[in-house]
Hints:
Radius of gyration: 36 Å
Domain RRM: 52-144
CATH superfamily of the domain at 53-148: RRM (RNA recognition motif) domain
Distance between the termini: 121 Å
Oligomer: single chain
Main location: cytoplasm
Organism: Babesia divergens
Helix content: 10-25%
Pfam families: eIF2A
Number of helices: 11
Shape: extended
Strand content: 25-35%
GO molecular function, one term: translation initiation factor activity
Structural class: alpha+beta
CATH class of the domain at 53-148: Alpha Beta
Strand order of the largest sheet: 2-3-1-6
CATH architecture of the domain at 53-148: 2-Layer Sandwich
Amino acid sequence: MVIITKSDLTQKDLDSGLMEWLSDHDESKDQEEIARYTENEAPITLSTLFKSTVFAAGLPIVASEKFDRLCEVFRRILDKEFDKKKCDLQKNYKIEMPRDDKDSTVGVAFLTFANHFEAQRALRHINKLKLDVSHTLRAVMVDDFDLIVSDGANCVPAPKSVGFTREDIRSWWFEGERMREQYVIRYADQTEIHWFDPIESEPSLIYSGERERAEGKRVWTDQKVEWSPNGSYLVFYRRPGIALYGGPNFELKIRFEHRNVQQVSFSPGEEYLLTWDGTSGQEKHENSICIWHVITGELLATFPTPEMSPKGGDFPHFLWNHNGQYIARLNKCADGNEILVYKLPEMVLISDAEGNPAPLKYGAEKFDWSPTDDILSVVIPGTPDTPARLMLIDIPSRRELSARNVYNVCGTEMHWHPRGDCFCLRTTICKKTGKKGRKQFTQLEIFRLRERDVPVDTIKIEDATVRKLVWEEGGNKRFALVVKNEEMSTFSIRFYRVSDEGTARDTVWVTTLDTQPQMNHMQWSPCGNYFVLACLGSEGTLLFCNLTDNDKVEVLFKDEHFMMNMVKWSSCGRYLATCVNVPMPSHSTVSSSDTFRYSAEAGFCIWTFQGRRLCVSRKENFYSFEFRPTPPPLIGIKEIENIKKNMKEYSRKYDLMDEKAREIYHAQYMAKRKEAKEIFLKEATVLLEWLSKQELYWEFKKGWDDFFDQRNWEVTEDVFEEVIEVKEEVLD
């Protein structure tokens, strides 16, 4: 609102009578107008931020004739440093050096980059960079400069953490009385989190976004949700970025701004987060992958999507090590592929023998981390004349722990034991038979990493085609092979044990379970021993099985969940969820055929690990079901094995606890039922008293009684006969 007074007008304006057209000034009216305009659109303000500009001090002071030379040398030094540290930046960043009245530089420079992400990344490499013996740069973001140089008495240091704390993040798990399970479901426009306790008849709702709807939001989220690996956070996918919710009340903890994120990957300890926007490697988008510090929300690094994935497929492109200290990726370069291993949080490459950051030059095709150690398994592809090579490499020393050459390889898969005790390299071997014939078979190389010199067992499977290999969860060194006999067209599951007792050290085939061709999915319980076989996508047959410690297979129960297409174990291994999910709609795609195929049966069932169905729920437009994961156990492997051996003693204890909880629940249920009945009878009594005072009621009652009075009716009985069929027979 612009206020014009008489003093603002010229004499010519006054003579022309302009004052008659001006309204009297009313401040209250002005404030009302401003408030009304602000409701429709926020007032435009001038931004004073320079998010993409870095301030650097410590440059040489030179005269005007050496100015161009200084700019050229300074840019060359920066480019060399960025290339050395593998810092991918757009090369056309702007360098500005202020000069004094004598046209000499003042020892500072302003560097403006393409965006805020590049500026943050460059700052880490510019600060403390040595130009020569007598000149070392000190760099800060321009937006932080005023705070740094302000008066010390009034200066408020920037907080080291601008995110949140872990207080109450896991209280639901540590403080739970009965260690109940939690799960989250997405259906239609709803997102709901439930407690699940088998003693109660129905799951109990914890939260479904009431606060968000009270703030005016139509839905909590319209995209997918998932848990972090240890269950600390609930991850919400939104168009502007990722949001993490946590705590007992599921409050918003932090947001990460990265548009159209398609996938995320947490470090094993949930300290770091990787987000990917789904763009392909050919697009060369500089910020396709972002790596964040979860607690502070700090952006550590950004990358374009790599052209290669270490496990194949579209995701993941980066793999975390077992404790989140390192992250690695494949990089395609002119002289072959290389593995880049970054150390966090600095996001710098690990050093070579000379102490310089450098990649691992192995020409790798695939790699993977050990689940428990800083060991990389690397596959180097072969050629018709050279063998494929498998290497186990210690990080960060780069020491080669073991290696294996395999000839005539046409396909490889890597499988780590869940505790890192063993590693299996599954190769498909192609050999010539005769002049034109070729024969394929599967060969397994089992590495024993806990034994001296890492011995290797070799298994050749020539009588069947291997479809899948799955290590048993838990401490047992057993794995399952899903195979098909091509000659007989039969399917079976072969179980192997890596034997290390006494002098018997070999990988042996212990038992076989014959299956039907439609059983296309096998999944171990997180606790081991138990597993489920499922027919996904059509019949929905379920087999609940147990592989005993004596290597015998027991089929515990057989059931079905028609049209199920997803199987999920709870982290404790007590429960199994089978789901019929419909694909989540996308704004860029139309509904797929699967949407109509699964919509009629959409929902989920929860079972015990023995096959008893506990809960059935049908939901229209059901998208996903996720049990909440639990953190790793606080006790060691030996303690867990001891608990398994003494399971009967623990069972008695917890059976008594369950029985007591069942009695309490039954008493509470009956009390609620009695209370509801009393409330109903009380309200019914009030209604009957009111009804008895109505004149029309008595007229209606008299007419009703007269209508049903037997004395007013005459009962008669009429018999009707109808010929249904006539049949003639000749009698002798």
